[in-house]
Amino acid sequence: MEDLLIRPLEPWDTNEAAAVWWAARHAEGSQLPPAIHTEPAVRKWFAEVLLPDGQTWVALDDGRIVAVLTLDGDDLDQLYVDPPVAGQGIGSALVDLAKDLRPGGLALWTFQTNTRAQAFYSRHGFTEVRRTDGSANEEKAPDVRMVWGAHPERLESQV
Fold first, then answer.
1. Helices (H), the chain
2. Rg (CA), the chain
3. What is the pLDDT of residues 119-154, one digit of tens each?
4. Contacts of residue 89, Cβ cutoff 8 Å, sequence gap at least 6
5. Which of 53, 75, 89, 97 is deepest in the core (most CB within 10 A)?
6. What share of the chain is helix, strand, coil (3-state, %, to 5)?
7. In which region does residue 32 sit, left (phi positive, over 0), alpha (psi from -120 to 50) or beta (all else)?
8. CA separation for the pair 93, 3 (Å, rounded)
9. Cα(143)–Cα(50) distance, integer angstroms
């Protein structure tokens, strides 16, 4: 992915970015629970929530969106790579961008079933600080909180 371009999400990107999110969530062998919203609702969320918030980036290869990153404050909120190009360093490039944008630290949630994501984030310096039963997330699926850098939750977990 030598020609990878990373830039902020633009209005004309929302449907294509939502399609990448959807494909990653529903790929064969996905370790994620199925999305609880419909595909049209996800497109609307990209257009009406993620775009105006201004904290979503897309990675493009040869003019095609291949990954999406959303930050929400110091949370790495969304990171999805189009399944056919997964494992080629695109996710790593987006994590590096997130770290550059939030040098004070990052936190994220991942589902307990998503052991590949946990291993990926561990390789990027994130450490687990707690697990929950999932009652606070939309999917009601058990999850894992991970942090990187001097994030306040890392410090709290060391007390």
1. 14-25, 39-45, 51-53, 90-101, 115-123, 152-157
2. 15
3. 999 999 999 999 999 899 888 899 999 999 988 887
4. 1
5. 75
6. 40, 30, 35
7. beta
8. 12
9. 22
Residue 34 confidence class, pLDDT cut points 50, 70, 90 = confident
Calpha distance 117→78 (Å, rounded): 12
* Residue 37 DSSP label: S
d(CA 141, CA 41): 20
Question: Is the pTM value of this prediction over 0.70?
Answer: yes
Task: Determine the 3-state secondary structure of 75 from DSSP.
Answer: strand
Pair 68, 19: CB distance under 8 Å: no
Number of H helices, E strands in the chain: 6, 7
CA 82, distance to chain mean position in Å, is 12
What number of residues does the chain have?
159
Instruction: Please check whether residue 91 is in contact with residue 61, taking contact to mean a CB–CB distance below 8 angstroms.
Output: no
SS3 category, 116: helix
Return phi, psi of residue 36, to 5°: -95, -10
Q: Do the beta carbons of residue 128 and residue 154 sit within 8 Å?
A: no
Give the number of other CB atoms < 10 A from CB of residue 46.
Answer: 24
Structure tokens belonging to residue 27: 């790929």
